[in-house]
Design brief:
This protein has 275 residues and is α/β, with parallel strands linked by helices. The chain folds into two domains: 181 residues, Vaccinia Virus protein VP39 (Rossmann fold, 3-Layer(aba) Sandwich), CATH 3.40.50.150; 72 residues, Orthogonal Bundle (Helicase, Ruva Protein, domain 3), CATH 1.10.8.100. 35% of the residues lie in helices and 18% in strands. The strands form two sheets. It has a seven-stranded mixed beta sheet with strand order 4-3-2-5-6-9-7, with helices on both faces. Strand 3, helix 3 and strand 4 form a beta-alpha-beta unit. The protein is elongated. The protein starts with 19 loop residues before the first strand and ends with a helix.
Length: 275
Amino acid sequence: MPGAKSESGPRPRKALGQHFLRDAGVLADITGALRVPEGGLVVEIGAGTGQLTAALLDAGHEVVALEIEPRLIGYLRNRFRRHPRLRIVEGDARLAEFAELVPAARPFVVVGNLPYFAANPIIRNALENRQKPAELVVMVQREVAREITAPPGQWSLLTISVRVYAHPELLFDVPPEAFDPPPAVWSSVIRLELLPEPALPAAEIPAFFDFVSRVFRNPRKQIHNSLARGVWLPPGGAREALHRAGVDPTRRPETLDLAEWRALQRAAAEVLSLA
């Protein structure tokens, strides 16, 4: 059952798709899920009216709160005026450079109730940032959470784009009534634990994503047809590339793991070089 609602503040703006998390129990659960490294701090994305900010401060964390809306910046600075463990920064989390928010020597984690419309670019920016967090604990739409944390055999392009950088974990679901106003959908909190290094060399990532996205344009088709339609290869090249990669041509793109996608990309390049 949802817990008690925390104190209010400025009203959410429907035009911006705002849904402020008010449920004290959910706020406590998010705070408790954080694994802040020793000597580290917390970067909160989308501080809003400061409900999660207050929970983080009450838990003893040092917090950098990022908020994009000027009216909320003013409210936050008044609510937490002169708090010694809080720095409030106006900015867009889709573009933020963590090196400008966190000292180079400080480990940090990212937390936030992400706007539905901006969740994917915010997560991508965090995963690809020059200065990377140890982990993200973020709330997104439940369907997006299920896609990010999908089990083997059910991967989408989004799943792969996250797994190149991090290990995803579904933590818990959050009902609409935990928010003001309640959204039309459920939400979920996920953890993204960043890998020590990306699953493939940084210089190869753009070409890898381009290759996978081309094949995923036909996700319900067999991988042979998806590859043949998505990537230009000479006649018979798709079947040859799959043979070289050791991938059954009747499988669907959603069933391939990262190692198989890399093998298929290399095999396709080899076939193309011989054309």
